[in-house]
Amino acid sequence: MLLNKQMIDKAERLVPSLQSKEVNVQQLVEVIADESAFQGWRTKPTMTVQEWKENSYGKGDSFVLDFGDHQVGYVKIAIRPVGSPPDAPLKLKLTFGEMPCEIAEPFDSYNGWLSSSWLQEELMFIDVLPAEIKLPRRYCFRYIKVEVLDTSVKYKVAFDHVLCEAVSSGNSSQITSLPSGLPLYIVDMDRVAIKTLQDCMQTVFEDGPKRDRRLWIGDLRLQAQANYYTFQNYDLVKRCMYLFAGMRLEDGTVGACVFEKPHAHVDDTKLYDYALFFVAVLYDYYEATKDMDVLQELWPIAMEQLNIGVNRLDERGIVKDDNTWWCFIDWHSELNKQASAQAVLIYCLKRGEALAGILGNEQEKLMISNHIQLTSKAALQYLWDEQSGFFRSGEEGQISWASQIWMALAEVLPSKQNALLLERLLIVSPKIGMATPYLYHHLIEALFLTGNKERAVAEMEAYWGAMLQDGADTFWELYNPKDKKESPYGSNLINSYCHAWSCTPTYFIRKYMI
Ligand code: RAM
Predict the structure, then answer these.
(1) What pLDDT does 226 receive?
(2) Which of 107, 138, 168 is the last residue of a domain?
């Protein structure tokens, strides 16, 4: 790891203090099977909070608390004994769910390839009652299932309260209200997108407060863009950039993600596109803040990422498709990423060129311009297929949505043809499609970029609007309207239902629609 202590120290000085808010249970529900509901589950109210407080629970009883909205925070439970003095410990099991599926489907049934330890549950033994217990971990949920596994024949328990101290570094008072007259679904989408961003804003921009609870640069880029139009927490973006800059991998690459605890350290995951996005994050930050000091300090690292990116070009000027270095782009198992990687490189070179210009680094600017010319020309010569009107990727010349979207964002074709490329994409609809809101985001950004505002809004409505109709309190990591249980990890239980890269409707609404 290449450490720059000064930068890490700077990042650590920017740890934000979290805003907290106490949230109470809203109602008690049960989760019932319903084919017509999202993932086959819906909730049904069973009793009021008052009724629940008056009830007592013994061995084998259970209930589901509904907090009314998505929460990220610390839970406190106040329990008192009912009946004879408690002559045995109380044994409780808690299961936390962002979504009804986590409450209804037993975690034992999980057989995905990500660790099952992400599924949030607790087994608790309480020796002394009454008690107010503060649970040790930070949880992410709307629902909590409480199972009383055992009391004793002589006593039961009742609950005075279950509270959540919800935390975030996104301060709601910074959010300006939308102008009146917007369609209701847009107002709703904006609200849910902001809530998604807010719940992911902790001491870094986390990708998802349930999973992976860490800072990924691909997610950061989109969060930061949404943040500039909403919470405007510039210091949090700055902290995240300094974390990446201060802890590069051995070859100088910016790592794909970093952990904060027990001390800041970078993960050993290296992603071609994510490393390049360091340049794009810096560019967007500068555009939003005009913070010259940060630009000056971080520029050498941005330039280094461009050089590393360019080093992967083959003799034709095309990014090598050699699988030695993963490129993310989207969770799609059949996607060939060569054309998208080429486009991400061009996209970031263009932002680097602008930054070099702002800094007055003429030599670097010229170098970057030459690379832009070389890689764009190569893309047109070797990846563009005149006959189909699409960019092809990899040895087999795969035509995918991702390749066209990223090439459009990289503006490789002249502007009119760029718009036509997207129109063609929407009509032909190649088989290799989009898996995540992350790639949908880029489709919509590309549509706005090429002037097709109407279609951009329609696509946003069709996708995020459908999530809303399916009951999203916060927007999801994965959403396939045709297969609502889809997961790249082998189980919908482990999907994150409040995910950074899904928060961008608010960015689109506030940047392009008002
Ligand atoms: C997953 C997470 C994260 C993303 C990486 C590449 O683990 O969803 O958000 O950036 O993949």
Answers:
(1) 99
(2) 168
User: Domain tally for the chain?
Assistant: 2
Query: Of 397, 422, 447, which residue is a domain's last?
Result: 422
Taking the CA of residue 217 as reference, the ligand 1 atom at the shortest distance is: 10
Residue 121 in any domain: the answer is yes
pLDDT given for residue 324 in this prediction = 75
Domain containing 113: what range?
19-168
Residue 366 lies in a domain: yes
Give CA separation, 237 vs 174, 203, 240, 300, in Å: 16, 10, 5, 18
CATH number at residue 44: 2.60.120.260
If we measure between CA atoms, which residue out of 36, 41, 162, 17 comes closest to residue 99?
Answer: 41
Token pair listed for 102: 């986590």
Does the Cβ of 207 fall within 6 Å of ligand 1? yes
Q: Which atom in ligand 1 lies closest to the alpha carbon of residue 496?
A: 8
Q: How far apart are CA 10 and CA 194, in angstroms?
A: 28
218 lines ligand 1 (CB under 6 A): yes
User: What is the distance between the alpha carbons of residues 365 and 346, in angstroms, rounded to a whole number?
Assistant: 14
Which residues are bridge partners to 168 per DSSP?
19
Domain shared by 164 and 284, yes or no: no
Taken in order 217, 114, 269, 336, the sign of the CA dihedral is negative
Burial grade of 153 (CB within 10 A; 0-12, 13-18, 19 or more) = exposed
CATH number at residue 350: 1.50.10.10
Pocket perturbation via mutation, ligand 1, pick of 200, 219, 273, 477 by most ligand atoms within 8 A of CB:
219
- Tell me: do 25 and 158 sit in the same domain: yes
What is the rounded CA–CA span in Å between residue 90 and residue 104? 24
Residue 369 placed within a domain: yes
φ/ψ of 327, rounded to 5, equals: -120, 135
**Is 313 a member of any domain?**
yes
Q: What is the pLDDT of residue 451?
A: 98
| Per-residue model confidence (pLDDT) at position 107 | 98
Q: What is the pLDDT of residue 81?
A: 98
206 within ligand 1 shell (Cβ under 6 A): no
pTM of the model: 0.98
Residues 298 and 291: their CA atoms lie apart, in Å, by 11
Inter-residue contact 206 to 214 (CB < 8 Å): yes
Q: Report the C-alpha gap between 410 and 404 in whole angstroms.
A: 10
216 lines ligand 1 (CB under 6 A): yes
Residues 158 and 43 in one domain: yes
CB-based burial, 57-90: b 16+ in 10 Å, e otherwise: beeeeebbbbbeebbbbbbebebebbeeebeeeb
Ligand 1 mean position, distance from CA 438 (Å): 10
pLDDT of amino acid 366: 98
Atom of ligand 1 nearest to the CA of 114: 7
Collect the ranges in the chain with pLDDT lower than 70: none
Ligand 1 centre to CA of 78 (Å) is 36
